[in-house]
Amino acid sequence: MGIPPLASGPHGTDALRPLLDTVLDALRAGTAARGGPLPPGGPRAVAARVADAVGEILPGHGDPEALRVLVTVLAEGAADPAHPLCAAHLHAPPLAVAAAADLAASVLNPSLDSWDQAPAASALEALVTRALAREAGAADALVTTGGTESNQLAVLLAREALGTGLRIVHGANAHHSVHRAAWLLGLPDPVVVPAPAGTLDPAALDEALTRVPGPHLVVATAGTTDAGLVDPLPAIADRCAAHGARLHTDAAYGAGLLFSARRRPLLAGLEAADTVALDLHKLGWQPIPAGLLAVADAADLAVLHHRADYLNADDDTDAGLPDLLGRSPRTSRRPDVLKAAVTLKTLGRTGLGALVDEVCDLAEEFAALVHHRPGLELHAPPTLGTVLFRPARATDADVAAVRRTLLATGRAVLGRARAGGRLWLKATLLNPHTRRADLAALLALVETAAGTGAATPTPPGTAPEGHHAP
Ligand SMILES: Cc1ncc(COP(=O)(O)O)c(C=O)c1O
């Protein structure tokens, strides 16, 4: 093998075109071989198939078939969020246009740690972050790898603003990454306010803020991981104002509601937060990663300023080269903003809002189907795309076993969550191509796995109307 071709440069596209054909053919073949949402057989069977297909990963002499073989085996062994019966997590099927834009990002490979590595990409990032910050009622936003990094950055900014005596106060419904952020940043364990109804109770928050000495960072959630609920943001903001507490709202899941004219009111009060986490790889249909941290006061970001002579020497900055190093604690950084920018502009507010409404409507219909099946119990009507349900009269162990049975067969992927002291199956609907018949097929599979189903389930993907998985 000679020197392999590059992806960019004058001959880059010529070299890429046949390789893209290989990738697309392999994706198609692997997806067809899998058939369902998940490869059957569980972890050991999948690992064996992968090991078998891969052979030696670093052979003495290279293998020109590697691209086809590895993409095929990855697609065959994928949990495919574009399959309508894959509904466990906040794991979105990426839009084709976003994935295509992400290819351009990989090819051009701008690195957003200095202007001389990313001239246009840094300009685009500035436009997109400002526009999305405005959507959230904030002044500026940083690009992150997702909710975890956004929450961590929010805690860091709070610690820098308020000192290391900072106490984080959050509901029991908050994402685990808030606790991890405290640990990573050397802060005391957060004060956890019980949230038996699934949302942060302002009265219980008030009690905690009164009892625990500050300064405080309160973390609210707009779109909880387990149940898709939105904390009462205006009342929480009031309590924070009364106690002089800083407020971070984790809207990693819920921020997509901003695009929907119908559902945007659910996020009233978001603009009162000092910082907001938003993820476009959840209700934004982006390939991972696509996170943002919006800040109400752009001056808060000054603490991230950092000097490295090879990237942002003072004389370069004085001469007008943008200083990018303070836009992230990372150094080399992908232009994740490209795929997001392409998506926002291609779909517009209406297009994105329609996707958000579609998956939320699907969740409402799924909940109604559960409600009308005597063999199943619904936890509560959904707010976002998350529905908790369980086989009626099942124990927690039965619920967990149903989920694992479905995983082992590869016929459906559901999540699990605790609510009201019991374990529930969790369906997170994020695929706007899902049909009503798919929802019924999913429930039939659950009933059969639980031994409560009267009918034989429709095999996944062959529901009467079929599904639209792209
Ligand atoms: C509310 C919430 N915050 C943060 C996160 C973490 O996001 P990421 O996985 O993008 O780091 C999640 C993930 O599901 C989440 O549900």
UniProtKB/TrEMBL annotation:
Alphabetic keyword roster: Aminotransferase, Decarboxylase, Lyase, Pyridoxal phosphate, Transferase
Originating organism: Streptomyces olivaceus
Family per similarity comment: Belongs to the group II decarboxylase family.
InterPro entries registered for this protein in UniProt: PyrdxlP-dep_de-COase, PyrdxlP-dep_Trfase, PyrdxlP-dep_Trfase_major, PyrdxlP-dep_Trfase_small
Pfam families: Pyridoxal_deC
Cofactor(s) needed by this chain: pyridoxal 5'-phosphate
GO molecular function, one term: transaminase activity
Name recorded for this polypeptide: Aminotransferase class V-fold PLP-dependent enzyme
Coiled coil: none
